[in-house]
Amino acid sequence: MTLTRLACLNVLRSRRTYAAYFLSSAFAVTVFYICALFIYHPAIQGGVAYDGAWRTLVFAAGFMYLFALLFVLYSVRSFLRSRVREFGLLQLHGMTRRQLHRMIFLEQMLIGLAAVCGGLLAGLLSSKLFLMIGARLLGVAELDFYADGLVILVTAAAFALLFLAISACTSLLLRQDRLADQLLAGRRSKTVPPYSRWLTAAALALLGAAYALAATADGASIYSRVVPVTAMAICGTYLFYTQASAALIASLKRRKPLFWRGRHMIVIAGLAHRLQDHARMFFLVTILSAVMLCSVGFFASVTTVPEELAADYPAAVAYVAKAGHDGAAELARIEAELAARGIAAERLSLPIQYVETSTDHKVSRPLPLIGYRDYAAAMRLSRADIIHPPLTGTQALVMLGSQRDRTLLDVRSLHTYALADRYTLADQPLVLQEIGYTDTVILPDHLATNRAEPSIGEFSGLVVADELMEQLRDDSARERYTGYYVADLRQTAGLAAALADQGLVRHEEAAPYALAVSGTLLEARSGLYGTMLFIALLMGGVVFLAAGSFLYFRLYAELEYDRRQYETLLRLGMTEGELRRIVTLQIGWLFFVPFGLAIVHSGFAFLALQQIFYLSVADRLIGVLAGFIAAQVLYFLFIRNRYWRHLRRAWH
Amino acid sequence: MALVEITGLTKIYESHHAHRALDNLQLQIEPGEFVGIMGPSGSGKTTLLHAIATIDEPTAGRIRIGDAEPLKMHRDEMALFRRRRLGFVFQQYNLLDSLTVAENIVLPLTLDSRPVPEIEARLAEVAERLAIAELLPRRVYELSGGQMQRAAIARAIIHRPELVLADEPTGSLDSRASREVMETFASLHDSERTTILMVTHDAVAASYCSRVVFIKDGRLYHDLYRGGQRQAFFQRIIDMLSLLGGDGHDLNPTRLP
Predict the structure, then answer these.
(1) B240 CA to chain A: closest CA distance, Å?
(2) Model ipTM?
(3) Given an 8 Å threshold on Cβ–Cβ distance, is B113 in contact with A261?
């Protein structure tokens, strides 16, 4: 028997052990291939989709590759660890270390190349489907099916290189123990891990604090809390598995009426043993699953943004002519295009007066003001119900710049603005006094000078009394806003492309006007977010399979050992029904302890996430969680039934 | 009335060629007997033990243990029968190493969800009886082979079974540990009149029995009852084994006392 043949037989005969690893690797290859297919697609390269979507795809492909690298590395390490005894026996019978490394290299390359071929084949077969879905999401006309030799080559080469590099490094992963120790490996002679009360308390305190901080985060504090809360959750999770779980089990074991009853003893002792041996694997699976749930949840939530967009842009086309520019040509063009499409639009035009605040004031940029009468007209056009009662004197309302600002309302305090010295009212210095907020956006975010400041948000200006507006009139700092309000924003997609090709000309740009075409913006964002969600789901699928693969491998690596234990129990008089329940519980621990903790982690992360969205994203997040729980339950049932069949095969 | 009554027990393994492991075997065991079963490899000793233990189904024949006929039971009833009325000792000890020694011993009682005070009382009693009290809090891997087997015996008797079945209990032990284990069995038999059925290769181990049954080709070949001295009984077993033929390695010369 040659070494190559030995390697092939080793892989083929333990195909059950490698099944999940093979599937996960192959799926990673498929996802990478599909990303690459989009990236290299002639239509997409030609620029029919938006840059953001393309960048997302490139990022996804890169992430997939990096993840596959780490996954394969970790998996190979556990495979090798579980075979120390076998390697010891081979060496005992005279295999040199060189031959051993060669055998392992061949084995790993065999699985790796099979995964590359399998993944590519799956990718080729399903690419038309993905191109159809992708085209819809990217908002482009249907992409032609194509199987580019280059893409196949890139994918195959990238992953062949990955497997080659890792297979070549296996000698570094192999422990250099003495042969005598290698032959004894696999015997379970571990002591019960000591646990410290302090570290247990620390685990619970860290998790509790992280949860509390996440649950109480608001729009202002969420950004500063993300990093510390994540770090606390990760440390807390690690300590939870290594310390708190041992403490919990020790206390369970002390409760004899519970522990010494029926099958509890076997189930709890089995859990203790698994937690003790696999604490790090549990930790890894928990963190992976939590990251996956959070990112899919996040991308599912940002797709609500197009709905927010309608609220952000009450006018379908919003135009601002800057000072010294009358804008008649652009407005005529917009109106002509609206008429050509047969869109009935209501038009509102209002002046925006920029005033300067006094130099010592912390808001140094010019402040946009509009009059109360125009405000009321705009509110009626955008069908807002609540119109603030008329303003008097120096009272002012803060205009929301976008729905995002709404999340800051709770924490923002009302300001006063001392205007520059040249503005006076009855010979007194003029001080504007904020008394409240407008109920909807009037001037969209990018059409006025952006006043973004960390503590006060991106509010787009103030509404003041009409008399004051008249007094402050200064044509050299006066701009004119014109909005066209239509029934359905989507009708305006692609309108005035000659004036604003991506739907937006920002106020800070050099053009003599600022313009927002919300239909175009909506289409672009839907495409981008749709793509992101699609990619996040695909990557979530890969991570999900990978996490499952770690569990699956553990289960099968210990199948023989467990079988002997269960056989003893059967002989001692346990019924098959009881044993089946024990097996279900034992596998259940493995599948649902890390996954359950990940669900709790992401639940709290979602509570915080809600703070940065104005619209409720709860239904989407619950949908994401329910979807993954359902997938996990199915996965669990499938593995449980397979495992039970394999166990039973020995007894019958 | 005999505690165990076996009539016409036959087991045919049907694989590539049919093999008759038990052939119309008859056997009776009285209450309080300590019976050793010996015979060459492949004579059907283990098949017989498995049939009595209800973990293997014979092709034909009847087995009565006390008032029960386990062969007529449903699978789950059989499991409960094993749990409550039989005790097992295996060659490989088969202690669960995720549990402590005490937890292993009380396993048959906890499976039945008996009250904790009762379990603890029984545990203390057996531990004292087998002089293993100091082992109780330890983990299984800390024990020597002989200690493990004594813990396994404690597990086999804690629920006071009608019949203890032992499958090569000294097969993995050195001669000193074997002697310890066999003395434990013998004293259980002497003082508590526990009925024990043991399959063994080891003539020394068999010499502790009150009766040794020899099986050849699936049939009862001979019955030996111990009269007086163990030494004399050992000699008669050796003689019988040489008469029985079979493989030379059945008789391990290093085990000669």
Answers:
(1) 32
(2) 0.83
(3) yes
